[in-house]
Amino acid sequence: MATNYAKWLYRLTIAFVASLLLYILFLLKPVWHPVLDVFFFAALPFIIGAFIAYLLHPVVEKLHELGIHRGIAILLIYLLFFGSIGWGIYKGTPAIIHQIDDLSKNAPVLTDQYNRGLTYIQYKTAAWPEGIQSMLDKRINGLEAWVTGLATVVLAILMKFMNSLLIIAIIPFVSFYLLKDVVKVKRFFIRLTPRKWRESSASFLRDVDASLGGYIRGQLLVCLIIFGVSTSALWLIGMKYPLILGLIIGVTNVIPYFGPIIGAIPAVLVASTISLHMVIYVVIIVLILQFLEGNILSPLIVGKTLHMHPLFIMGALIIGGEVQGVIGMIVAVPALAIIKVAILHGRTHFIHSRQKEKKGH
Predict the structure, then answer these.
(1) Are residues 143 and 240 in the same domain?
(2) DSSP string covering 109-172, please?
(3) For the chain, counts of helices (H) and of strands (E)
(4) 153 and 241, same structural domain?
(5) For the segment 74-124, what is each residue's pLDDT rounded down to a tens digit?
(6) Structure confidence by residue, pLDDT tens digits, 263-299
């Protein structure tokens, strides 16, 4: 009994000391935060390169299993992947800049049309509480500022991109060497891990990869397909800004359940400034895309790799949205998958520890 009390006292002491250290680190944030920013900026190409290598590794392994030399398989996938990205940036960037510039110039016209719509809504909802009308006013007033500043933001991002070309140029080399020396990299990290944790750490990473790897790769492929189909469909019906709106629909599609709704809102809003028929066409396209993604693409490409109840996923999305908006919603599901694996491994470790304690007594 005394031994159990001593263990709990030890754990509480460790928790108190850890909390105290975290509080001290928080107070020293002005000192270490700039250093962390520099470190993160320097590490970013290695993080992105590692992520790309992680995505491409299973494809390389499949080709290698088919009898293709590993080096040739890496080179083929590597050239195909980065060649496609380079071609897309070369062809797509001027079109995106042109459409954003056009959207920025037409912001006052779009806002005027939205205001007319707002006036009509206010007339129809005159008996509703004032709070709803005030909220709509704020949304409309903020729209013009957001759209007008969009071109400035994008140009600033492009300038940062140009200034960081040397850093970005490192990414393909990082991915290549990680794919080439994947066995050596694994051995390196295994040696860094203490011996008593190596087996459990390897098991944890395998389970995370099994739960998350297929989901991430599948979702990215589905989003790419949805982007291509939505852009083409919007262009065919004569919709304004098809590339920007298609890109928004494709990117937000990575968010389960809520993604298609979030992605459809900008397209419907722009369509409402053209005609009612255009709104109907856009809604039909979004519904078809939703059916295509939910009933064909996701089941075929992604499958049920997460093995999580939809209620848990929805809860994670709501929390992620509250914490960091759309970015938080994109990260929420992968984070939930890692937490789930961590909890299962922690539970297994706790059960084994209790069984060892009982055997010791």
Answers:
(1) no
(2) HHHHHHHHHHHHHHHHTTTS-HHHHHHHHHHHHHHHHHHHHHHHHHHHHHHHHHHTHHHHHHHH
(3) 13, 0
(4) no
(5) 888 888 888 888 787 777 777 777 777 777 666 666 666 656 665 665 566
(6) 888 888 788 778 788 888 988 998 888 888 877 777 7
- Whether the CB-CB separation of 206 and 238 falls below 8 Å is answered with no
Cβ pair 182, 54 in contact under 8 A: no
Are 201 and 175 within one domain? Answer: no
b/e per residue, 30-39, with b = 16+ CB within 10 A?
Answer: eeeeeeeeee
Residue 132 forms part of a structural domain: no
**Domain range for 89:** 37-125+137-182
End-to-end CA distance of the chain: 11
Residue with tokens 């800049």: 97
User: Is 26 domain-assigned?
Assistant: no
Reported as type and span, the H/E element at residue 89 is: helix 70-105
Note whether 321 and 201 are same-domain residues.
yes
Q: Do 176 and 278 fall into the same domain?
A: no
Residue 189 within a domain: no
Question: Does 216 map to a domain?
Answer: yes
Helix axes 214-236, 276-292, angle to 10 degrees: 150
> d(Cα 284, Cα 351) in Å, to the nearest integer?
53
**Amino acid residing at 317:** L
Tokens representing residue 6 in the block: 């001593």
**Number of structural domains in the chain:** 2
